Amino acid sequence: MAAGMVFRIVVGVDGSDSSLAALEWALDEARLRSGQVHIVTAWHYPVIGDAAGRAEDHEAFGDNARNVHAEALRRASEAGVTVTGEVTEGHPAEALLKAAAGADLLVVGSRGHGGFVGMLLGSVSSHAVHHAQCPVVVVRSGAESVQG
Fold first, then answer.
1. The whole model's pTM is what?
2. Is residue 145 part of a domain?
3. Into how many domains does the chain fold?
4. CB atoms within 10 A of CB 46
5. Residue 3 domain-assigned (yes or no)
6. pLDDT in tens, 36-73
7. Which of 7, 3, 9, 5 is nearest to 132 (CA)?
8. How far apart are CA 47 and CA 43, in angstroms?
9. Total Cβ atoms within 10 A of residue 90
10. pLDDT of 114 higher than 50
């Protein structure tokens, strides 16, 4: 990181306990480094059986993601660091990698659920570790906070 540049942390939040622990870890790290946090909530509507799906079901997935994201922003607003965010439709792992382009650090939970397909069984954290262009921190729920 060049002198005068702000340390930029991207964190994935899907509403699961481990993603909320990742958010807290990212906020703690940003405080220690006088950095900023960018929260990414990505959602993917599953195509199962009827490929067309129902428009209201698709909309409900998006609404759920926006609600999860709003709650993450609310929690982060009390952290005393600059926080930005985005909600995006698409595969969570790819959305996080895109958002983390040029970031100093990517933070993800070890296992997601939060009702979003693609955040199951640690597939997103595994993909991030193997493909991100910046360092990746994987946080378990119940993990200790950064101490400063």
1. 0.83
2. no
3. 1
4. 11
5. no
6. 999 999 998 776 655 555 666 778 889 999 999 999 99
7. 9
8. 13
9. 12
10. no
Residue 2 pLDDT greater than 80, yes or no: no
Q: What residues make up the domain containing 128?
A: 8-139
Angle at 12 between CA 10 and CA 13, to 5 degrees: 135
Q: What is the DSSP string of 100-120?
A: TTT-SEEEEESS--TT-TT-S
Look at residue 121 and tell me if it is in a domain. Answer: yes
Is 126 part of any domain? yes
Exposed, middle or buried, 4 (CB in 10 Å: 0-12/13-18/19+)? exposed
Residue with tokens 């994987």: 138
The count of residues in the chain is 148
CATH number at residue 41: 3.40.50.620
The residue type at 64: N
Q: Map tokens 């909600």 to a residue.
A: 87
Please report how the helices 92-99 and 123-131 are oriented relative to each other, as an axis angle in degrees rounded to 10: 40
Contact residues for 110 (Cβ-Cβ < 8 A; gap 6+):
18, 122, 125, 138, 139, 140, 141
